[in-house]
UniProtKB/TrEMBL annotation:
It comes from Pygocentrus nattereri (Red-bellied piranha). InterPro entries: Kinesin-like_fam (IPR027640), Kinesin_motor_CS (IPR019821), Kinesin_motor_dom (IPR001752), Kinesin_motor_dom_sf (IPR036961), P-loop_NTPase (IPR027417). Residues 6-40, 80-160 form a coiled coil. This is Kinesin-like protein. The lineage of its organism: Eukaryota, Metazoa, Chordata, Craniata, Vertebrata. Residues 260-586 form the Kinesin motor domain. Pfam families: Kinesin. Belongs to the TRAFAC class myosin-kinesin ATPase superfamily. Kinesin family.
């Protein structure tokens, strides 16, 4: 900084010196010009003086010369013509001389003027010189003063810079001392680092050998661990198989405890028109018990107890929550049948198919199955197929076939397994709900869409036919070699209203008769199953014959009874609920194959009445079915059939039901509160 100031000052001083030199050069030039002007003037003065002197001399000579002319004149006058001529010449000469004199005088005057002029110029120049000299003196004085102040400034700046440089130098010295000290302390650290570096270098040199050794050891350990893991895996696989069997058994028992035939009731909401008309709502609910429904009929309050009652505000999701365990059990190889039962307009199609923006059980079940089977991959490989069947006037139609009007038949498998099958029934393999739109031409996918989304009525008799969506889930476990096969039948039954009420005639009467026949056949089958009859009349209708697999043995059945809340529908609602309550008391037998044999073999055998065991967290409960009297079977008057139970405390319980599972087993809660 100071150095910069000093440099600036030095440049300033140099500039001022240059200016001073320039000023003195100019003064010198002016002096020279003045001298030249003075010399010029002196020369012209001299010249003029010489001319003047010459002129004066000439004048004085003229004056001193004798007056020859007058003499000549007189002589001429007196003496002769010659003289006269001489006089004339003299006069002429005189004239010339006079003229010369005038010229000389004029010249003299001019010279005198020039002299005056020169003198004036000279005095003017002198004055200018004096001014210049004054200015120069002033400039010189200023320059000297500036020089002086600059010199002082320079000295001061140099002094300051020196002082600052000294203090900086001192600080640098101090820093240097600190750095020296640091250096002294760093030296041991450097020695340590060097030592470490050497050590690391040695380690790096040894590393390949150590690595090789470690790899060999690790390999050995890995081999050992793999061996252990593999034996643990074997053990786990064994346990897994055992647990899977237990889980299946447990799930089966849990569902059986809930009842192999479960009955829900769903009350549809009043539509706007009904709400605005003078229709009355005849249905009420028990706020403390979601299994009870009250119906006000002819001034009396009827109570119906079912497994679950959904009020009008229940959502599709809430309904499906209760259904999903049944749906997933078909992945474990169970046959499941879900019916929607009720009079026309009571909401069967809404519950099963739903609406595009809020789908019902059909679509939700398929979605759940797809997600469940994908979670079980890669151990389990599942194949899901769908078929769609309509039963109208006791005729079976293949809705996915090329010709939907073609009638289908139900036949026994020729392999003697006792299985039933429908020759010519079209089945599509699907992997996602979206797949359905891709599998077949528009007509087929629209039929599937109708089943899944209830876009529009399938045909003009859709509410007078039974619509079945049959989903078959076949699984194979590649690690255990297990195979499963389960069937989920989702049935939207035809309207259950009585002929008298419908007032039908002709073809409508036939339709109503067919519906009534198949629905009462369904009731008979359920009654026979409930009563453990030796003969179950599956063949009395196409519907029960087709669903034989899913109604007998260890199959699971859910009946969703749809009820309209209107006073105008009260008698149909009472009928539907009575039917539901009868169905609810049915228990299915243990083996579907034995059941099939019972129905289809020429010598029908009695249904098994074996005891069934169920385990809670620490107890075994053995159920012994109670055989009921024929009169009881005929009237179906009892609400509940309570079998006998024996409870044994387990010494080493190996099956653990979660508390929620146990709580869910309603009968356990009601019958054995101490175990829950
Ligand atoms: N839970 C519900 N929430 C809202 N609307 C419903 C509900 N249940 C039924 N509905 C409506 O009530 C009307 C009749 O329902 P739906 O067609 O499902 O009856 P259905 O019993 O299948 O009749 P059908 O026997 O004629 O097929 C439909 O407009 C349906 O959208």
């Amino acid at each position: 900084m100071l150095e910069q100031q000093v440099q600036e000052r030095t440049v300033l001083v140099a500039q001022l010196q240059e200016q001073l030199e320039e000023a003195s050069r100019r003064r010198h030039e002016i002096q020279q010009q003045l001298e030249e002007a003075l010399q010029c003037r002196a020369e012209s003065d001299e010249r003029l003086t010489a001319q003047l002197r010459d002129a004066e001399e000439a004048l004085s000579r003229q004056a001193a010369a004798p007056p020859q002319v007058k003499y000549v004149t007189k002589t001429v006058e007196v003496e002769s013509a010659q003289c006269k001529q001489a006089l004339v010449d003299a006069q002429a000469r005189n004239q010339v001389l006079q003229e010369q004199l005038g010229v000389q005088r004029e010249l003299l005057r001019e010279l005198e003027q020039q002299l005056h002029e020169s003198q004036r110029t000279s005095s003017h120049l002198r004055q200018q010189i004096l001014v210049y000299e004054g200015e120069m003196e002033r400039a010189q004085g200023q320059l000297e003063a500036e020089l002086q102040s600059l010199e002082e400034e320079k000295n001061r700046v140099i002094e300051e810079a020196f002082i600052r440089a000294e203090s900086e130098m001192k600080a640098v010295h101090e820093n240097l001392a600190g750095v020296r000290m640091n250096l002294l302390t760093l030296q041991p650290a450097l020695r340590t680092l060097t030592c470490d570096y050497n050590c690391l270098k040695r380690q790096v040199q040894d590393f390949p050998y150590m690595l090789e050794k470690a790899i060999a050891e690790a390999k050995q350990e890995i081999c050992q661990v793999i061996g252990e893991v593999s034996s643990a895996n074997q053990e786990l696989l064994r346990k897994y198989k055992r647990e899977m069997n237990l889980r299946k058994k447990c799930h089966n028992e849990l569902v059986r405890l809930k009842g192999n035939i479960r009955v829900f009731c769903r009350v549809r909401p009043m539509c706007q028109e009904e709400a605005e008309s003078d229709s009355k709502n005849m249905v009420t609910f028990d706020p403390d018990d979601d299994a009870v429904l009250y119906l006000s009929n002819k001034g009396k309050l009827m109570t119906f107890e079912l497994d679950k009652v959904f009020p009008p505000q229940a959502t599709q999701e809430e309904v499906f929550q209760e259904v999903q365990s049944l749906v997933t059990s078909c992945i474990d190889g169970y046959n499941v049948c879900i019916f929607a039962y009720g009079q026309t307009g009571s909401g069967k199609t809404y519950t099963m198919e739903g609406i595009p923006e809020d789908p019902g059980i059909n679509q939700r079940a398929l979605r759940l199955l797809f997600s469940e089977v994908s979670e079980k991959k890669p151990d389990w490989d599942y194949n899901i197929t769908v078929s769609m069947v309509e039963i109208y006037n006791e005729t079976l139609r293949n809705l996915l076939g090329d010709n939907p009007s073609e009638k289908l038949d139900i036949k026994m498998c020729p392999d003697g397994s006792g299985q039933l099958y429908v020759p010519g029934l079209t089945e599509f393999t699907v992997e996602s709900v979206e797949d359905i739109n891709k599998v077949r031409p528009a007509i087929v996918s629209s039929v599937i869409c109708i089943f899944l989304f209830s876009c529009t009525n399938l045909n003009e008799h859709s509410s007078r036919s039974h619509a079945l969506l049959i989903i078959t889930v076949v699984g194979f476990n590649s690690s255990t070699g297990h195979r499963t096969s389960g069937k989920l039948n989702l049935v939207d039954l035809a309207g259950s209203e009585r002929i008298a009420k419908s007032g039908a005639e002709g073809s409508r009467l036939r339709e109503a008769q067919c519906i009534n026949k198949s629905l009462s056949a369904l009731g008979d089958v359920i009654n026979a199953l409930r009563s453990r009859h030796s003969h179950v009349p599956f063949r009395n209708s196409r519907l029960t014959y087709l669903l034989q697999d899913s109604l007998s043995g260890d199959s699971k059945t859910l009946m969703v009874v749809q009820v309209s809340p209107l006073d105008s529908n009260i008698s149909e609602s009472v009928c539907s609920l009575k039917f539901a309550q009868r169905v609810r008391t049915v228990e299915l037998g243990p083996s579907s194959s034995s059941r099939r044999h019972a129905e289809n073999s020429s010598t029908s055998s009695s249904p098994t009445h074996d005891s069934v065991e169920v385990h809670t967290h620490a107890h075994k409960i053995t159920e012994t079915p109670v055989k009921r009297s024929q009169s009881q079977l005929a009237t179906g008057e009892e609400k509940h059939i309570q079998p006998r139970y024996q409870i044994t405390k387990l010494s080493n319980p190996d099956l653990h039901l979660s508390p929620s599972d146990v709580q869910d087993a309603k009968f356990t809660r009601q019958t054995f509160p101490a175990l829950v």
